[in-house]
Specification:
- By secondary structure, this protein is of the alpha+beta class.
- The protein has two domains: about 40 residues, Winged helix-like DNA-binding domain superfamily/Winged helix DNA-binding domain (Arc Repressor Mutant, subunit A), CATH 1.10.10; about 80 residues, Alpha-Beta Plaits.
- It has a four-stranded antiparallel β-sheet with strand order 2-3-1-4, covered by helices on one side.
- The longest helix has 13 residues.
């Protein structure tokens, strides 16, 4: 089924308001944009139904006691990378898993409370996944940008 959804300027303005404050009510957005709450509600529902918008809450890792952000580059052998990635995605510490091209097969991002958790995660949890040939970890020493609203909303001509 082809998705014929296109954003118009009103949709863009509603999304911009949600990016500023994802907890804003439809009425608050409507007042800021000179619309009715019903219009805002139906527009948001239409964008969600077309899989063009998803309103989610994003947690701050440090606020929840996670002080280590780690990236894992993983090489897989003797097994499809997708199977390994699905198993890896089941660990609560892992918040992003990507099957990638290039030198590695999988890229994963995870958080740990502290460095003592790293030993348990690598030796106990990761070692339980069959097919991992090599892991190259990288630890974030500083976070310069952490944004989830980076996907541009534009129409293609």
């Amino acid at each position: 089924m082809k998705n014929d959804f296109t954003f118009d300027e009103t949709d863009r303005l509603i999304v911009a308001e949600l990016r500023k404050n994802g907890r804003a009510t439809n009425q608050q957005i409507a007042e800021r944009l000179g619309l009715t709450a019903t219009t805002v509600s139906s527009r948001i529902r239409r964008m969600e139904d077309a899989n063009q918008l998803r309103v989610v809450a994003v947690s701050d890792f440090a606020a929840h006691g996670y002080d280590v952000l780690m990236q894992l580059a993983i090489e897989v052998d003797s097994r499809p990378a997708s199977e390994v990635a699905h198993e890896l995605a089941q660990f609560p510490e892992v918040f992003a898993v990507h099957i990638v091209t290039g030198r590695y097969d999988i890229d994963a991002l995870l958080v740990l409370h502290d460095f003592t958790d790293m030993t348990h995660f690598v030796l106990d949890q990761l070692s339980s996944i069959r097919g991992i040939r090599k892991i190259t970890p990288s630890i974030a020493v500083d976070i310069l940008r952490y944004k989830f609203d980076v996907a541009p909303i534009e129409t293609r001509d």
